[in-house]
Design brief:
Helix content is about 35%, strand content about 15%. By secondary structure, it is of the alpha/beta class. Bound molecules: S-adenosylmethionine.
Length: about 290
């Protein structure tokens, strides 16, 4: 059964009782449309952006907006899984962007490792401090009861077993090295529902590990449609792609490798303390996301 949203997007209605607009799901092809008027968000976008002011993290305003809109598409009583929560910036956006009956799982070991640019090795004190700030942010945003923290590495069986049933939205922003990024996309991505489920990946087309994992698993995929990106935040939608669609899907992702090359050069310049030279690329010397 299909219906038109106020912005003209074609919506697919699944077993939705009359009046339950929240059960309308947008199909993969409509993903770049603005959210429909019957938005499922528990809190408006502007209020959500205010709620993350002052919360440290690497999610830009444009990326937070994309994440909020994606969370809007999660059906009533759905499930969101976030890998890599840090101090709760993206967790807040995902939770406030979705309906209040959507369950949100935050997977993070809080070991202080694989935490930010050039912060790979473990630092327990740093991890404990992050977790305290995460817990505080959940309380401040009124999300303590909605968000279930799974304090595990995403690859641990205890983490995978901590979520049962299909995932409607998966957000990957955990360890950015190749092997864990690949495993997150493969193992958790497989659990996203196949009919329009969403996967968003931060630092795609920016970090070497995440980009290589995306190239290997997503560029030629018959399942993951590349929807678009804001900076390094890439969005995918689960569907079934024909051979022809796969070719154009691969081409659209390959076209983003220019951004990857640019970000790589910018990072090398910053690491070599030559940040001012990033102006050549129209950049301001900050770490690119
Ligand atoms: C880039 S930060 C996440 C930022 C967060 N998404 C935000 O927008 O505020 C990376 C986080 O991933 C966590 N992490 C590191 N290794 C992980 C793993 N194997 N599984 C899940 N999370 C991991 C770190 O503890 C850190 O909090």
């Amino acid at each position: 059964m299909y219906a038109k949203s106020p912005n003209g997007a074609v919506l697919e209605q699944r077993n939705a009782p009359a009046g339950r607009q929240r059960d309308l799901r947008i199909s993969c092809s409509d993903m770049e449309s603005p959210p429909h008027a019957d938005s499922a968000a528990s809190v408006p976008l502007t209020t959500t952006l205010e709620a993350i002011e002052g919360v440290e993290g690497w999610l830009t305003r444009a990326q937070a907006t994309r994440l909020w809109r994606a969370a809007n598409q999660v059906p009533a009583a759905g499930q969101i899984v976030e890998i890599g929560s840090f101090r709760g910036r993206s967790t807040t956006v995902l939770s406030l962007g979705s309906s209040s009956d959507v369950r949100v799982f935050a997977v993070d070991p809080f070991l202080g490792s694989d935490r930010g640019p050039q912060e790979i090795s473990e630092d327990r004190d740093r991890g404990e401090a992050d977790m305290a700030l995460f817990t505080g942010q959940m309380a401040r945003a009124g999300l303590s009861d909605r968000v279930t923290l799974i304090r595990q590495r995403s690859g641990a069986m205890a983490a995978l077993d901590g979520v049962t049933g299909r995932i409607d939205l998966l957000y990957i922003d955990g360890a950015h090295r190749y092997a864990p990024a690949r495993d997150d996309i493969a193992r958790w991505g497989d659990r996203v529902r196949s009919d329009g489920g969403l996967m968003l990946i931060h630092d795609a087309f920016s970090s070497i590990g995440v980009t290589l994992a995306s190239m290997r698993l997503l560029f030629a995929s018959s399942r993951w449609l590349y929807v678009g990106r804001d900076g390094s935040l890439a969005q995918y939608c689960a569907t079934t792609l024909s051979h022809r669609q796969r070719a154009s899907n691969a081409a659209r992702q390959t076209a983003q490798l220019g951004l990857f090359a640019r970000n790589l050069v910018i990072k090398l310049l910053i690491t070599a303390k030559l940040g001012r030279l990033t102006r050549v690329f129209g950049h301001d010397g900050s770490w690119p996301y």
